[in-house]
Amino acid sequence: MNDAKHNPKDRFYWVEGVSRGEVVRALSDHRPSPLRRQGPRRLLVSSAAVVMTALALTVFIGDLKFRTYSEVILMVLGLCLFAFLRQSVRLISEAPNELLDERQIALRDANYKVAYGGISTLTLVYGVLLSLVTGGGWLDEQLGDRFWTGIALSYLLCASSLPAMVLAWNMPSEPQDDAA
Question: Where are the alpha helices (DSSP H) in 10-101?
Fold first, then answer.
């Protein structure tokens, strides 16, 4: 009974947020999917970027009820797009090295460099936006006492999605003849 707890097949990688079985299933799935073509993946990345931008800009919605509903809807939509992004890259952006081959590790690491450079730039952009809308900022008087939850949620979603977004944008289409 103790062996079931230590089964390497059931291992969960807490830092990466994936399980061994989940990554193995994603990498061995050969069913045709539109998410495995570059065009739909790029559309998915663009849609996620629009949703994250809209989520950050909800701070400019005056009505509290409408702003809150907008934030919830956009956050759920953003999380769904994040799940589709992860599927489209077969979890390569989150998988630990021991579950990937050398080619996949090199592809992931090259895209990580771009993604984390992007996160640095986005941190600056979000910081400027926050400085504009919080106390003493240029837009503080127009916004009044609005809370900036949308900006914080957008930043968290963006930071967690960016590695998958960069990988999805850069990966070529997978051959469709792999279907069995």
Answer: 20-28, 38-56, 64-88
